[in-house]
Each structure stands twice: as structure tokens, then as C-alpha cells.
Backbone:
């Protein structure tokens, strides 16, 4: 089962699993946090593949999830459904409580009840909050989240640990670092910048462009996620990042070059909940999962721009 199957990472993981001959039970509520037509377009691609079954359900609905488990033989769960977005958590905090906490608990309860052989779930680099150690290591304490989104993801790791200890459910949390690429989320920087530049609108550049982000290409994220599904462990947390952070202005410069257009930039102060730098220490991930990100930022942006032009018929 892949929850959030119509989302960016959920779609990409499902597509890869199907290409490997696996059967995938996809679950997604197709909420309107961003353009639903994009989610439906992803879903159409999955539905065209052999071995894919889809349920339009919300992970907050425990009874609906129980019906799915009764009707399907599910042996692994990849829980990628979540209310995403640091800034949105300032506007609509209760959606994070419902999906990221109650929904997450529902999925874990079913993992316990049905004896699931592996439970892999999306955590986030946001759990590091105001951590001063760079690069971020999974050995660092993460007790200082600075967004509700980050706090819910840290809570997921704690809840998973309790269930792993109490019920011997293999649980692996993946701290994703700024994932980008084709079929990406419209609320993420690359999508927003590309849309604005092509429409000759100014872009907002926060912290005056002095932020550094560990942009990680979607194919590398998929490889790491599937490696975790293939390697059940009692309990583990891994960083999935490119381990090569770049300044936001450099990222924008590469995008400008790939688009062949210059951006008009509104230089803005830091936003609440944001951090100046994200950088993943992936030594443990390399050693235990064989994780080896291969896609450079330029190559990743080029592939995104190509997809964007094709998808929007530009």
C-alpha cells in the first residue's frame, strides 16, 4: 500500500514499484491543497499500469482503511500521505493534526492489526528545526522544531518508535530534503519560480537569497525509498538528501539559464518557520541503504523544465 499515491513522491514511488512488477494499492483523498488536476493526471498514469488499484479515501477515515485491508492482501506499507508545507501550517494548523497525527496513527494501527512486514514513512528535514550542526545528522537531537509541520513529522518518528517497540513492527522513517523534479508540487520553489519567470512576473526571494537548500532530485528519492522498503529493520531513521546544498540565488541562476529568461526578483526577509540552511549527512544512508544520489541540480532542473513545457504545452 502506498498512501498519498497521487502526490509527488507517492506517485513517483508507485510508478517505480509497478515498473518492477510489484502490485500497488494506492490511497489518496485528492484534497485541494494544490491543483487537483495535477494529482489526477499522475493518477491516470498509474491506472494505466498493470497491478495498480486505487482507493479515493482519506487516511483520517479508519473505517474506510479497514475495509481496504479486509479486501486486499497488503504486506508492506509506504505511508507518504501527509499535509505538507511549512508555511501552510501557519494558516491551517488543524489539517496537520488530523492528517499527520491522527491519520498516521490509523495507518500504524492497521499495520499492527494485520502484521505488516515493513512500514516505511515520510519524515522531513524540517524536524531539524533550528539545529546548528551542519550537515544535519540523524544522530543530532531534534527537539527544537520551528514549524508545526516539522513538529508533526518528529511526532511521527516518536509514534513509530513506540509501535516498533511494543508490537515488533519494522519501521523506517525517511527525512526527505527539498525534493524536486518532473511532476513536482506547485507550492515548491522550483514550480513557483518557473511559472512566474515564464509569465514574466516577479519572484519572491526570501532571506534575500542567502538560504542554502539541499535540493534532491525525485529519482534519487525514489531509489532511497524503495531501498528502505526492501530492507525491513526494527526501527531506523535515514536522511535522504543530495548532500550538496546550494545557495538559493545559484539555484535561480541555473533555472534562468535553462529557461533562457531572467527573473525579476523581490528580495524579501526570512519567513516564519523557515531555516537558513538544510544539508543532509548521508553517510549512514549510503552504508545501510546503498543510497547514492546521482542527479546534479542542473540536470534535475533541466528535466523539470522539459516536463513543465510539455505538460503545459508551452
Residues:
Amino acid at each position: 500500500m502506498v498512501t498519498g499515491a497521487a502526490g509527488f513522491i507517492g506517485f513517483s514511488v508507485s510508478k517505480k514499484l509497478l515498473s518492477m512488477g510489484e502490485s500497488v494499492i494506492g490511497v489518496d483523498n485528492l484534497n485541494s491543497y494544490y491543483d487537483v488536476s495535477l494529482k489526477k493526471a499522475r493518477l491516470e498514469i498509474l491506472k494505466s499500469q498493470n497491478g495498480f488499484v486505487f482507493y479515493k479515501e482519506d487516511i483520517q477515515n479508519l473505517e474506510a482503511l479497514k475495509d481496504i485491508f479486509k479486501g486486499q492482501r497488503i504486506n508492506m506499507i509506504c505511508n507518504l500521505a501527509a499535509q505538507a508545507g511549512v508555511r501552510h501550517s501557519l494558516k491551517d494548523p488543524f489539517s496537520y493534526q488530523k492528517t499527520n497525527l491522527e491519520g498516521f496513527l490509523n495507518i500504524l494501527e492497521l499495520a499492527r492489526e494485520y502484521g505488516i512486514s515493513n512500514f516505511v514513512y515520510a519524515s522531513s528535514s524540517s524536524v531539524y528545526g533550528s539545529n546548528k550542526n551542519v550537515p544535519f545528522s540523524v544522530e543530532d537531537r531534534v527537539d527544537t522544531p520551528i514549524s508545526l509541520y516539522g513538529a508533526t513529522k518528529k511526532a511521527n518518528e516518536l509514534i513509530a518508535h513506540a509501535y516498533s517497540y511494543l508490537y515488533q513492527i519494522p519501521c523506517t522513517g525517511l527525512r526527505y530534503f527539498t525534493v524536486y523534479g518532473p511532476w513536482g508540487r506547485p507550492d515548491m520553489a522550483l514550480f513557483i519560480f518557473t511559472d512566474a519567470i515564464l509569465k514574466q512576473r516577479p519572484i519572491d526571494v526570501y532571506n534575500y537569497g542567502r538560504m542554502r537548500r539541499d535540493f534532491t532530485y525525485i529519482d534519487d528519492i525514489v531509489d532511497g525509498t524503495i531501498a528502505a522498503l526492501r530492507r525491513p529493520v526494527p526501527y531506523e531513521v535515514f536522511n535522504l538528501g543530495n548532500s550538496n546544498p546550494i545557495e538559493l540565488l545559484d539555484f535561480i541562476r541555473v533555472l534562468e539559464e535553462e529557461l533562457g529568461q531572467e527573473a525579476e526578483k523581490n528580495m524579501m526577509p526570512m519567513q516564519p518557520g523557515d531555516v537558513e540552511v538544510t544539508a543532509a549527512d548521508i553517510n549512514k544512508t549510503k552504508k545501510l541503504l546503498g543510497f547514492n544520489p546521482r542527479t546534479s541540480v542542473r540536470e534535475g532542473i533541466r528535466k523539470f523544465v522539459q516536463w513543465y513545457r510539455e505538460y503545459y504545452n508551452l
User: Anything to note?
Assistant: The chain is about 45% helix and 15% strand. The chain has a mean pLDDT of 96. The chain has one domain: 2-180+215-242+279-294. The two ends are 35 Å apart (CA to CA).
